[in-house]
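In the design runs reported in the main text, the only information available to the sequence generator was the tokenized backbone. The following block is the verbatim input for one such run; it is reproduced so that readers can re-run the procedure and compare outputs position by position.
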């Protein structure tokens, strides 16, 4: 199985990053194919722009970083999201990733009958 591991923590030696790496190693040992998206090391831009909020009918091109992330999500058989709880929620980097990658167009194309807007 193809596993996408999305991890969000700014410190490379954090427990969060170590957990994601250990999980990836275990998946490999079990014969799976893990792929890690370490949002901070990737330099993912979490800022949702005004252009990205434009109605779908304007058919704006999806930014390349978002398109790559959407392709990875679509190709994954399983997705694990690993992050610390800060102020009882996820880090802003991960929130921005979700806002940008889980766009209406993308998930309507993957799950056309289950998504309504």
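Verbatim output:
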């Amino acid at each position: 199985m193809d596993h996408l591991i999305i991890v969000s923590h700014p410190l490379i030696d954090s427990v969060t990053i170590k957990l994601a790496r250990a999980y990836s190693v275990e998946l490999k040992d079990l014969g799976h194919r893990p792929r890690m998206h370490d949002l901070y090391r990737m330099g993912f831009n979490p800022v949702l722009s005004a252009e990205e909020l434009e109605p779908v009918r304007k058919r704006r091109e999806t930014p390349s970083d978002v398109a790559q992330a959407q392709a990875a999500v679509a190709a994954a058989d399983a997705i694990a999201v690993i992050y610390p709880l800060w102020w009882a929620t996820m880090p802003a980097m991960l929130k921005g990733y979700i806002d940008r990658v889980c766009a209406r167009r993308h998930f309507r194309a993957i799950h056309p009958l289950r998504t309504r807007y």
